[in-house]
């Protein structure tokens, strides 16, 4: 069975779509690489705990002020707050950059 293209369909327009998709794919890969190299920092407890994460959402550094070391439970809570905040910053930046490339298209898995 032979398939037919819709009447008025131009193969040039399909080629244009394919080229656009390839360009977007290259731009997204470059953006993903650049974002992975970036660092995002957040603090909690008024600067007592500082957490730095990479753009690919890996914890890179945790700084803790000596004054808080005596209260372990509070310290643990502050580390969680700062880590989650830094990861959220990285995620928001990633989403913003990818959305700018894809033109706000809803692409599954991104």
Structure description:
- The mean pLDDT is 82.
- The chain has a three-stranded antiparallel beta sheet with strand order 1-2-3.
- The protein is of the alpha+beta class and 110 residues long.
- It is rod-shaped.
- It is built from two helices and three strands.
- It has a single domain, classed as Nucleoid-associated protein YbaB-like domain (Ybab, Chain: A), CATH 3.30.1310.
- Strand 1 and strand 2 form a beta hairpin.
- The two termini are 36 Å apart.
CATH class: Alpha Beta
Q: Which range best describes the helical content: under 10%, 10-25%, 25-40%, 40-55%, 55-70% or over 70%?
A: 40-55%
**Overall shape:** rod-shaped
CATH architecture: 2-Layer Sandwich
CATH homologous superfamily identity: Nucleoid-associated protein YbaB-like domain
Q: Structural class of the secondary elements?
A: alpha+beta
Instruction: Find the CATH topology.
Output: Ybab, Chain: A
């Amino acid at each position: 069975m032979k398939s037919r293209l819709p009447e008025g369909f131009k193969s040039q327009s399909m080629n244009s779509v394919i080229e656009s998709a390839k360009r977007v794919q290259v731009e997204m890969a470059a953006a993903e690489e650049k974002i992975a190299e970036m660092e995002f920092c957040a603090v909690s407890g008024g600067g007592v705990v500082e957490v730095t994460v990479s753009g690919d959402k890996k914890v890179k550094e945790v700084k803790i002020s000596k004054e808080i070391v005596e209260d372990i439970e509070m310290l643990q809570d502050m580390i969680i707050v700062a880590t989650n905040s830094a990861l959220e910053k990285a995620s928001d930046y990633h989403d913003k950059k990818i959305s700018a490339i894809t033109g706000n298209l809803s692409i599954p898995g991104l």
